[in-house]
User: What shape does this take?
Amino acid sequence: QVQLVESGGGLVQAGGSLRLNCAASGITFNILPMAWFRQAPGKERELVAQINYNYRNTYYADSVRGRFTISRDNAKRTVVLQMDSLKPEDTAVYFCNSDPPMTSWGQGTQVTVSS
Assistant: This one.
C-alpha cells in the first residue's frame, strides 16, 4: 500500500524558511524520481522541484529556483524540501510524489507565508 506522509509546513513571515519532509512507503523508492508539488487555492497543482533516483539531477520551477533545495535519502525513504526566502506567493498545500506522480497522494502540508 502506497503511503506518502508530508510534514513541516506552517505559518511564516515573508523572507523566512521552512523545511518540508516526506516519508514514503509501499513504493520502490530508490529507483523513482521524486518530487514536490504544490496547489494554491483556485489553482492547479504544479511541480515545484524534482530529484532523480541517484541524486545527480534536480529540476526546479522558475518561480523557486535559487530559493528552494530538494534532497533525498534513499536509505530512509525520505524527500526533503528546504524553502528559503519565502514569498507570499509560495502559500499553498505542498505534496510529495514520484514524477510522474502516482494516483495515490498524501494529505499534503500547508505552507502559509504572510507579507
